[in-house]
Amino acid sequence: MNDFEFYNPVKIFFGRDQILKIASQIPSSANIMLLYGGGSIFRNGVYDNVINALKNFKITEFGGIEPNPTYETSMKAVEIIKEKKIDYLLAAGGGSVVDATKFIAAAALYENGDPWKILSKSDPVTASIPFGVILTLPATGTEMNKNSVISRKSTVEKFAFSSPYSFPQFSVLTPEAAGTLPRNQVANGTVDAFVHVIEQYLTYPVNAPIQDRFAEAILITLIEEGPKAYANPADYDAMANLMWSATMALNGLIMCGVPGDWSVHSIGHELTALHGIDHARTLAIVLPGLWKVLRVEKGKKLIQYGERVWNITEGTDEERIDAAISKTAEFFESLGIKTHLSDYGVKKDTIEKIVKRFEERKWLELGDRGLTTPEATRKALEYQL
Ligand code: NZQ
Ligand code: ZN
Given this model, what pLDDT does residue 84 score? Predict the structure, then answer.
């Protein structure tokens, strides 16, 4: 096992009627900004519950945060925060609202010029306005981690940042409110969480059996519960299991002491930036292609994954690896998530654009052991044309 540090200070409130508890988590003198997206919180009861819980607080609302939240929209919130001397943020919605809030919280206190540098140049965050989260969509894990992903319209780019200042103080997880999700978002959430686990698990063995088994448990639960929640988002038990699985998939626990990859995400972010494809769908395209390219290097873990997660116990190593890759793609397709670029109208010229961007940024050895070179990226995407 590799050496590691683990720190996660996020307090979780999970289940029904938890929103009422937020009043006790926020300082009574707080000048709050409530941030949300395109209006789903008005239809699933979250807005009313928040207003009811915070009736004795001063609240300014900031709505309209878009899926794949942008720098441009975030900076509008930063202006209002400075003008109104807001000192507490509350994000209510999916991962996009939470990620925007993390960036806004850091950008409002940034003193080193344009806060875009936090994303484009990985300039470290040194302070953030404190914030809490009400999560209504199981997918990203952002409710219990320190990461955020922001897009910039003017440059057609999408970058992530990570900072210990970007942990929420608390997160309320609401499977009931997630019951109003459209089915395609439930499918997205299941696949995003699945690939988060894969990015931390499917590398090479380092004798870390507890991390492996945590990861396999989350994968198996997603395979069992994801389709139930997809069939009926209002199935509370299935949604609750999906939600906790998605949180556990990316709250830092399973990455302790093991190598990570994250190149599927790096390539996927380009497909979102260039074509607006939903985040999870980009991952479903890239993952099978990248595995086909790195099947030898990742062979040991692919065989372990096939055996323990999909019960693939027969055949040669080659056959088992093929079966593990196709079972995974079939699982994504069973949730209505297509795995080929042509399904999204994306052609070969996009592959060249992505490879060129990686070369220009000197992203020459991404992921696990630096195996995802620009050439590997090209081949992976060509497999999925
Ligand atoms: O905008 P509203 O009206 O709220 O509607 C949203 C949005 O249209 C809707 N929605 C959310 N909860 C709902 C609901 N509709 C009905 N009922 C509910 N209960 O769902 C739509 C999608 O929401 P969004 O927040 O964009 O989805 P998701 O949670 O999948 O977040 C995706 C973003 O997270 C980033 C992605 O790149 C993408 O930008 N990620 C963040 C990560 C992190 N911070 O750790 C890790 C991930 O890998 C990912 O990259
Ligand atoms: Zn993701």
Answer: 98
Q: CATH number, domain at 324? A: 1.20.1090.10
Query: Residue 97 belongs to what domain range?
Result: 11-177
- Same domain flag for 155 and 264: no
What's the pLDDT score for residue 352?
98
**3 found inside a domain:** no
Kindly state whether residues 167 and 237 are assigned to the same domain. no
Name the percent of the chain lying above pLDDT 70: 100
Residues 27-42 have pLDDT tens digits of: 999 999 999 999 999 9
CA-nearest of 53, 57, 67, 50 to 28 is 57
- Beta strands 131-135 and 11-14 are unpaired
| CA distance readout (Å), 372 to 136, 216, 265, 300, 352 | 34, 24, 12, 18, 15
Cα separation of 164 and 141, whole Å?
15
User: Once rounded to an integer, what is the mean pLDDT over residues 251-278?
Assistant: 97
User: Looking at residue 179, what is its pLDDT?
Assistant: 98
Q: What is the 235 CA–ligand 2 centroid distance (Å)?
A: 24
CA–CA dist 197, 187 (Å, integer): 16
The pLDDT of residue 112 is 96
Distance in angstroms (rounded) separating the CA atoms of residues 17 and 97: 21
Q: Which of 139, 244, 262 is nearest to 191 (CA)?
A: 139
Report the pocket of ligand 1 as residue ranges, CB < 6 Å: 37-40, 44, 67-68, 93-97, 99, 136-137, 139-142, 145, 147-149, 177-178, 180-181, 185, 188-189, 192, 250, 265, 279
Looking at the structure, do residues 278 and 371 belong to the same domain, yes or no? Answer: yes
Domain final residue, candidates 123, 156, 177: 177
How many distinct structural domains can be found in the chain? 2
Residue 202 · residue 309 · CB < 8 Å:
no
Q: Are residues 79 and 203 in the same domain?
A: no
Q: Say whether both 224 and 293 belong to one domain.
A: yes
Q: Is 2 inside a domain boundary?
A: no
pLDDT digits (tens, 9 = 90+) for 167-212: 999 999 999 999 999 999 999 999 999 999 999 999 999 999 999 9
User: Given 155, 177, 199, which residue is the final one in a domain?
Assistant: 177
- Whether 5 is covered by a domain: the verdict is no
> How confident is the prediction for the chain on average, in pLDDT?
98
- CA–centroid distance, 96 to ligand 1, in Å, is 5
